[in-house]
Design brief:
The complex is a heterodimer of chains A (about 300) and B (about 260). With about 300 residues, chain A is an alpha/beta fold. Chain A is built from 11 helices and 13 strands. Chain B has one domain. Chain B is built from 12 helices and no strands. Classes of the chains: A alpha/beta (about 300), B mainly alpha (about 260).
Amino acid sequence: MDFPPTSQCEPARLRAVHKRHGVVTALAGLDLALAPGRLLALLGPNGAGKTTAIAILLGLQQPDGGEARVFGQAPGTAAVRRQIGVMLQRAGIPDALKVRELLDLTRSYYPAPRSVTDCVAMAGLGGLLERRYGQLSGGQQRRVQFALAICGRPRLLFLDEPTTGLDIEARHTLWKAIRELVAGGCAVLLTTHYLEEAEALADRVSVIDRGRVIAEGSVAEVRARVAQRRIRCLTALPAEIVAGWPQVRGVRQDGGRLEIVADLAEPVVRRLLAGDADLAELEVARAGLAEAFLGLTRQAREQEAA
Amino acid sequence: MDAATAGARTPLRAYLLEARYEFLRLLRTPSFSLPTLLFPALFYLLFGVLLGSHRGGHVAARYFLATYGVFGVMGVALFGFGASVALDREGGLLALKRALPMPPAAYLLAKTAMAMIFATAVSVLLAAIAAGLAGVSLSPWQWMALLATNVLGVLPFAAIGLWLGGIVGAQGAPAVINLIYLPMAFLSGLWVPLGMLPPTLASLAQLWPAYHLAAIALRIVGQDTGQPWGPHLAVLAIVTVAFGLLAWRRLARPA
């Protein structure tokens, strides 16, 4: 076999991957690439194909078309699996085993595992080692799953919604550990519902919807793809009227307050000020990743419908 | 080169830990460990020793030593595989283990080892009651052969359990397993000797693997059915392979 040394290979790549589950198309030509020492955040609504993409890279599902490669090889081989760490949404970890036992067992799968002390420190598991998994809170269980994902010193880490159910402090502990891993050269694929998580951690963001990428780039680039501004003000102008103005994408009324999403802020602000001399508390902001992401999803659907 | 040498290394420690923790996991699950360990001993004490002592005495104590051993082995294997595989499959543990670099056979070997250890414990409990309370005396060879029968008897029922675990959901698994376990135990003459069943039911006993395992155990304790070993062993081997293959096809399919 003529594989190049795995250290020089790309950690993971999907090329035009298709996958159907019965009549449902889960992936419709998904492209995705991970680089060492980089974190890619996969964003998208539920059912967009995030979990299927991870299952294919783990070798748990076979693509119907296209190509999946992990360290230059087919996903799921023993040599590949020894280099990855996984945190899935549903882990089904046995309730009756203690945290120390779970770590012990998972570490034994890997050739050069991290020490238990390091795992405890990175995942914030102090004082939990002798507790049974089933006795832990949801957030503590999530931290145990993170420790199991990193205990093998993986060079490629899959984190499927890792911080769901965590309080802010625990989330920041995990973010710090993820940053350390990335700084140490680990490639990370992260899916999340928390957009601030992607903004805090991601080098690149892939927004996917209905099985394909609809936007890709740095967090700033993806946000810039939707140049929308969010305008807030107190005004007597009725929302129905403002909604008909050019550039206006959407209007939400909350008491006397209007929230307007517009492609371009200046002409809308000019009309607002001209139309209502008593207008107050004017605020203009660039749309956050949340709005950008919703905007992109909607644009993609509109284009398809047109 | 590194990957090649790492691949050739036998991860013995992973196999041992997998088995150890599978055993601990089920031992710490009272809904599994209490009935599987205690019911055979309890039933044997009641029906084989206390009730049996009135009439028949040693004959009944020997008969039920063999059949409650088989009853215990069935429970350990059917529940230890069926219910836990259903849970692992539904909960996502099976998928996680497949994604992790767990040695490929460790999952099944661990469950097999766990079931064999439980089967040994059941056998030792029954033997203690038989020798200590019921006055059953067997040669050392007979005791060892009975233990070996029970330990290896795990295999056909493990295969059936594995197949069930691939089909039923975690919630329904115990009920479905009991629907197979209890009628099969009764119809195979484990609770009541076949001669006391209606002849039509007794003639069906040949169909159940538990009957064939019990026939071997009964022959060892000297309650000969007069049949040769070969057909019993053949049926058990066929059941093991057939259900093992069915389970393999079912579980190897990507979720």
